[in-house]
Automatic annotation (TrEMBL):
Residues 389-400 have a biased composition (Gly residues). It comes from the Bacteria. Residues 374-418 are annotated as: Disordered. This is Inositol-3-phosphate synthase. PANTHER family: MYO-INOSITOL-1 PHOSPHATE SYNTHASE. It comes from Streptomyces justiciae. Residues 207-311 form the Myo-inositol-1-phosphate synthase GAPDH-like domain.
Length: 418
């Protein structure tokens, strides 16, 4: 018996709500809902997920945080001019973009903001809870799609962790689509465990690493020895500018390297270089050079070139994750959603690294969601029972009102996309 599809409205609160990825998410959800475009790239719209009880795209309500004030309709027009969105789409979904823009709140901390960490967390959480109440949402998920930040130094919480803590305080499940720290900060470990909320991440797997997670297992399965694996990324836009910072680039590359180490069983020679090319805008080119040995030591080379639009690759994954995570919350799951590793370079929890195995785990997860009655308990991948505690926000210092809905918004240091 398949799980019923809820007709309730669900919030998607985007951190970095006015960036390219977030704008494409909002415009894309509206376009698919209206039948203007097919759901290409949306894994959750394929047959294995039909009976999972996922919230329909038409039920999603968007809002979020950002540090810039460029309205979403204007941002969408710029993306259409750059070829990211189809011509005419911003005008066709102008009402939906405007509605989401109204729900975006100022992010931070901004220069000169002297609020304490707890004051910032409380303010962000209050924004989310207010959105849930005003829009009459049943639940909300917070998704970080902001620009990559450097790894933190010292004990201070970076912006991504402030937003993650706010999600927990508001009673919302959390997804980190970036390589930024988020819930990985040691200071948040006990809070995440006590919250009774599901969470997933980190760093969306959209291009070069997606290909690596397929090619790495191929070399292992065919007993071919990889001697070196080097790569270069050329990209522009906000992500290119953010990754021009060596510390931010190092955080990004860590996930790429982990995929090779996990699939090959060793770390080959070679590095990944990221170059900011502003003229490329939202488009990126990823080149890989793989040196490997064949039978009798024959030296061989494989080279790949991946050219794509980062926002168009990321947006359907963000929508998938929002739907899957809110359904997991409804089903009573808590803790790391290991079965969502299919979507990430550096997934939380222990799971397979090869894309094929990750997809099998994802489909199995979708099946279990479909069998859940939403009563508050669900079997985990390892057979354990997990009990959801949507009201756990009170233990984190919140008002006690569980944020059961949220909407898209996005906050980053510079308001740009992941």
């Amino acid at each position: 018996m398949s799980a019923p599809v809820s007709s309730s409205r669900v919030g998607v609160w985007l951190i970095g709500a006015r960036g390219s990825v977030a704008t494409t998410v909002v415009a894309g959800a509206a376009a698919v809902t209206a039948g203007l475009h097919p759901p290409t790239g949306l894994v959750t719209e394929t047959p294995p997920f039909a009976g999972s009880g996922l919230p329909p795209l038409s039920s999603l309500v968007f809002g979020g945080h950002d540090t810039v004030d460029c309205p979403l309709p204007k941002r969408a027009e710029a993306l259409a001019a750059g070829g990211v969105l189809p011509p005419g789409l911003p005008a066709a979904v102008a009402a939906e973009l405007a509605a989401a823009d109204v729900e975006i709140r100022p992010g931070g901390p901004a220069p000169g903001d002297h609020r304490t960490e707890d004051e910032l967390i409380a303010a962000f959480a209050a924004d989310i809870q207010d959105f849930v109440r005003r829009c009459g949402l049943t639940r909300a998920v917070v998704v970080n799609v902001a620009s990559t930040e450097p790894a933190p130094a010292g004990r201070a919480l970076p912006p991504s962790s402030l937003y993650a803590a706010a999600a927990l305080r508001a009673g919302c499940p959390y997804v980190n689509f970036t390589p930024s720290t988020g819930l990985h900060h040691p200071a948040l470990a006990s809070l995440a465990a006590a919250s009774g909320l599901p969470y997933a991440g980190r760093d969306g797997k959209t291009g070069q690493t997606l290909l690596r997670s397929v090619l790495g297992p191929m070399f292992t399965q065919r007993a071919l020895g990889v001697r070196a694996w080097s790569g270069t990324n050329l990209l522009g836009g906000g992500d290119g500018a953010a990754l021009a910072d060596p510390a931010a680039a190092a955080a990004k590359n860590a996930g790429k390297e982990r995929v090779l180490a996990d699939t090959l069983g060793t770390t080959p020679e070679g590095e990944v270089h990221i170059d900011d090319v502003p003229a490329l805008g939202d488009w990126k080119t990823a080149w890989d050079h793989i040196a490997f040995d064949g039978f009798l030591g024959a030296r061989m080379i494989l080279q790949t070139i991946w050219q794509g639009c980062d926002s168009a690759l990321a947006a359907p994954l963000v929508l998938d994750l929002a739907r899957l995570t809110t359904r997991a919350h409804e089903a009573g799951l808590s803790g790391p959603l290991t079965d969502l590793g299919f979507y990430f370079k550096d997934p939380v929890g222990e799971g397979p690294a090869a894309l094929g195995e990750q997809y099998e785990a994802l489909v199995g997860f979708a099946g279990r969601l479909g069998r859940s009655d939403g009563a508050g308990a669900q079997s985990g991948l390892d057979g354990s029972r997990r009990q959801g505690e949507p009201g756990g926000a009170g233990r984190l210092g919140g008002s006690g009102d569980a944020c059961e809905q949220g909407d898209p918004g996005r906050a980053g240091l510079d308001g740009e996309e992941r």
